Predict the 3D structure of the following.
Amino acid sequence: MSAGRLRLMAVSLIAAAGPAIAVDCPIERAVYVEAEAKTEVRFLPSGGEATPVSHRFSLVNSAGKMTVDAHVLYDAEIERPVAMALNNCPEGDVTGADIAACTVWTGIIYAADKATGHVDLLPPEGADAPDTLLLPGFGPAIAASSFGSAMTAMPWDVFTFKQCSPKA
């Protein structure tokens, strides 16, 4: 076997053993995991152009003690996409106080590129999933929520790409 072929096999084995890469995975199918608590962010298609929601996702703890639905809306006032993780919100005609009572976390999701260190806003649906997500204040918000007492490990604010979920 030639040296070039051996080198190619070695590079392939090393690449296969490394972490998952987000290339060719649209954000709406990306799954991310946080290292401490193994909490996952699982993106889903938003549901079409007629909705103000730019992204949908679920937050799922590996122990099954937390599953929270979330969405991202563009806030024109601050010119940023703002995520809201909500738990057991009432439906129908609700007040701001009702929404505040069922909100687990609110914040801006940032995307980071491991190779360059570049940080940007969450990309739109259809774009490749970023390597890393930053959810500022997520860990403390979970600790302060009703989920906090049921969890053995608290998540931090950094989530890395885990896999691309199959098409629905």
Observations:
- The first strand starts at residue 30 and ends at 33.
- The CA atoms of residues 23 and 91 lie 37 Å apart.
